[in-house]
TrEMBL record:
Record PTM 4-aspartylphosphate, positions in chain: D51
Name the record gives this protein: DNA-binding response regulator
Keyword Transcription: yes
One example GO MF annotation: DNA binding
Pfam families on file: GerE, Response_reg
Residue ranges occupied by any HTH luxR-type domain in the UniProt entry: 156-221
Keywords: DNA-binding, Phosphoprotein, Transcription, Transcription regulation
Species annotation: Streptomyces alanosinicus
Length: 227
């Protein structure tokens, strides 16, 4: 674990909680994004607890840098796994959370969550799943999709034409807030098949998490807020 927060007392509390729990090891702590990027490269943690609002390099930029460097290592070193970034935020609809999800964060956790919730969240993202329920993802993305104006100067969105019809169906239902089990029931396929389609979709579109897939579905117009 790498713990990142600019407030010393919060950071110390998180470190103390994690070190006291069986199965967790804190390999570093950082008070700002720049330090987090450096420590992530040095310690290669499995999971990073990332604050967003920090002086200098914020949590979004730090997440982007950390995951970009990790992707380069994955290509160069067999067996390397990118860290899972779990964003810590004060507000559940903080506009910065949306940016963090776009940057590749695995999910978010409110700072007022209890110890059991924190430890469970770390275990969930370390296992490769999104932290939050699909319905929470949907509410978050819909809230900010309404506020995001298209950026004509921005990078082009991935081409959804590379997806099969079934992959598009799975992506659409994922973005609408359905769980893998619910998608399987809707499409009359197994849950394992749903996971396979979603993993292939993420691979084709260059996405690192389920949350990114949901964001992309809204940004490309595959799913519209309230639709």
């Amino acid at each position: 674990m790498l713990v990142v927060d600019d407030q010393f007392l919060i950071r110390a509390g998180l470190v103390g909680l994690l070190e006291a729990a069986p199965g967790f090891e804190v390999v570093g702590e950082a008070g700002d994004g720049a330090q987090a990027v450096r420590l992530a490269a040095e310690t290669r943690p499995d999971v990073i607890l990332m604050d967003i609002r920090m002086p200098g390099v914020n949590g979004i930029e730090a997440t982007e840098r950390i995951l970009a460097e990790a992707d380069e290592r994955v290509l160069a070193e067999a067996g390397e796994r990118p860290p899972r970034v779990l964003v810590l935020t004060t507000f559940d609809l903080d506009e910065y959370v949306y940016g963090a999800l776009r940057a590749g964060a695995a999910g978010f956790l409110l700072k007022d969550s209890g110890p059991e919730r924190l430890l469970a969240a770390v275990a969930v993202v370390d296992g490769g799943d999104a932290l939050f329920a699909p319905s929470v993802t949907r509410r978050l993305v819909e809230a900010f999709a309404r506020q995001q104006a298209p950026d004509p100067a921005g990078a082009a969105s991935p081409d959804l034409g590379v997806l099969t019809s079934r992959e598009r169906e799975v992506l659409t239902l994922t973005a609408r807030g359905l769980s893998n089990v619910e998608i399987a029931d809707r499409l009359y396929i197994s849950e394992a098949t749903v996971k396979t389609h979603l993993n292939r979709t993420m691979s084709k579109l260059g996405l690192g998490s389920r949350a990114q897939a949901v964001v992309l579905a809204y940004e490309t117009g595959l799913v519209t807020p309230g639709g």
